[in-house]
Amino acid sequence: MSNPDILQAALTRLDDAARHVQIDSDVLEKLKYPRETMKVRLLIRMDDGSRKSFLAWRCRYDDTRGPTKGGIRFHPESTAEEVETLAFWMTVKCAVTNLPYGGGKGAVRVDPKSLSKAELERLSRAYVQAFASIIGPDRDIPAPDVYTNAMIMGWMSDEYSTIRGEPHPGVITGKPIALGGSLGRDDATARGGFYLVGHLTERLGLPTEGLRVVVQGFGNAGQHAARLFRSIGAKIIGVSDSRGAVYASGGLDLDALLAAKNQGRSVLDAEHGGKAISADELIGLETDVLVPSAMEDMIHEGNANTVKARVVLELANGPITPAADEILAKKGVIVLPDILANAGGVTVSYFEWVQNRQGYYWTLDEVHTRLKTIIEREGDVVWNIARDKDVTLRTAAYIHALNRLATAIEAHGTQQFFTS
Ligand SMILES: NC(=O)C1=CN([C@@H]2O[C@H](COP(=O)(O)OP(=O)(O)OC[C@H]3O[C@@H](n4cnc5c(N)ncnc54)[C@H](O)[C@@H]3O)[C@@H](O)[C@H]2O)C=CC1
Ligand SMILES: O=C(O)CCC(=O)C(=O)O
Q1: Which domains does the chain have, with CATH numbers?
Q2: Which of 149, 208, 241, 317 is exposed most, by the fewest CB atoms within 10 A?
Q3: Locate the Glutamate/phenylalanine/leucine/valine/L-tryptophan dehydrogenase C-terminal domain: which residues (predicted)?
């Protein structure tokens, strides 16, 4: 079960940033609480004829800058607090990248690995039936997150269009290409982080050849990150999934690892060419880049001191606790923060939504070029704020987002009041 104080911990990052800029207290008050969180129980017919009930949530944290946007997670330990925190991070992330969105997030408390494909489809459709009044192409636009994927987004988009009686591809992003998905959404989360590291390589003090990379979590974000870094000659020396971790100082056999995951097996079961190590040993590996790509709070007070990476590229949301952040900063480890480092996913989701609305689809090259432009532009702004104010890149990214959020909140007018 995730930390019940996870939202309070996340909000401390906003307070840190607020100390460095002149921000009206009204702005902070507005950003402290989610605008609305809807909780339902989904009752699903199982294949054996029985019925089973699952808790589900959708949170629209803040819509000042546009419709709320964020993924849906299927995880056995999801909680309302986790969903709200993830929705808060989406709010900040969309501001950092200047996407015309607020932040949202959803979850179902379920172990999707325990469901058949038909059960998973019924659960996905039930989610949309339950939340049809809160989502919509101009209101709240879901996407994939942990243990959800393009197939699930396809079912959800189909269900929404059925309810509305006409196609609404822009209600959900991360869909299959055949249903209006965008080229390049599949690896966009990792690609955004990869572009960021590439753009900042010199400033980060990273080697241009023989880069060593460790990837924690080997799903959508982690697998694509490993593949992209390998494409520039990097060695993937450690990877992990929920079952365990593996390591080879000379580099793991990435194709074998990808093949095993593709067949639904763990990295432990692959012909990886290395040895099994513990989850904590993985975090402590001597490497140039550590890429957390799994869950929140994986690097905490208890293991942060062991981190030997030069750079941590946060593809996961919230993988480092505030206490661990301080330890890493003291050790001189540079953290590329989630709200910038993993923003490639939502950025290409935005491209998908734009393409759905205009009914005209871009080439993969166009998607990549536009993504790179945004990540490099915002990466430079964040880097310069950190340098000028002598703060971490995370605080700089929050300062950048807070400025944009404050401008938008003020532009709405001072007499506006909100109902939840
Ligand atoms: N999919 C997307 O577009 C985006 C995902 N993210 C974030 O990236 C992270 C990963 O998401 P996805 O790759 O989409 O999920 P996924 O479901 O494709 O993969 C998750 C991976 O994490 C592993 N994992 C779970 N618990 C673990 C543990 N305790 N130790 C090590 N590995 C563990 C799983 O085995 C799996 O390999 C999450 O924090 C998510 O919120 C962020 C931005 C966009
Ligand atoms: O693609 C999206 O809209 C949201 C992705 C997401 O959930 C995230 O960035 O954490």
Answers
A1: 34-179 (3.40.50.10860), 188-341 (3.40.50.720)
A2: 208
A3: 182-413
Q: Which ligand is nearest to the CA of 190?
A: 1
Minimal-distance CA residue to ligand 2 atom 2: 346
User: If we measure between CA atoms, which residue out of 335, 339, 326 comes closest to residue 404?
Assistant: 339
Q: What letter does residue 114 receive in the DSSP assignment?
A: G
Contacts of residue 273, Cβ cutoff 8 Å, sequence gap at least 6: 248, 252, 253, 256
Tell me what ipTM this predicted complex has.
0.99
Contact residues for 289 (Cβ-Cβ < 8 A; gap 6+):
197, 206, 211, 212, 213, 214, 229, 234, 309, 310, 311, 312, 313
Q: How far is the CA of 348 from the centre of ligand 2 (A)?
A: 9
Q: Whose alpha carbon is nearest atom 26 of ligand 1? A: 242
Active site residues: 105
CA of 103 to the centre of ligand 1 (A): 19
What Cα–Cα distance (Å) separates residue 189 from each residue in 186, 193, 195, 385, 405? 8, 7, 10, 23, 23
Q: How many angstroms separate the CA atoms of 211 and 204, rounded? A: 12
Residues 6+ apart with CB under 8 A from 33: none
> Measuring from each residue's beta carbon to the nearest atom of ligand 2, which residues come in under 6 Å?
69-71, 90, 93, 143, 145, 173-174, 317, 342, 345-346, 349
Contact present, 258 and 282 (Cβ < 8 Å): no
Q: pLDDT by residue for the chain (420 residues), tens digit each?
A: 568 899 999 999 999 999 999 988 989 999 999 999 999 999 999 999 999 999 999 999 999 999 999 999 999 999 999 999 999 999 999 999 999 999 999 999 999 999 999 999 999 999 999 999 999 999 999 999 999 999 999 999 999 999 999 999 999 999 999 999 999 999 999 999 999 999 999 999 999 999 999 999 999 999 999 999 999 999 999 999 999 999 999 999 999 999 999 999 999 999 999 999 999 999 999 999 999 999 999 999 999 999 999 999 999 999 999 999 999 999 999 999 999 999 999 999 999 999 999 999 999 999 999 999 999 999 999 999 999 999 999 999 999 999 999 999 989 886 665 554
Strand, coil or helix: 39? strand
Confirm if 383 and 396 have CB atoms less than 8 A apart.
yes
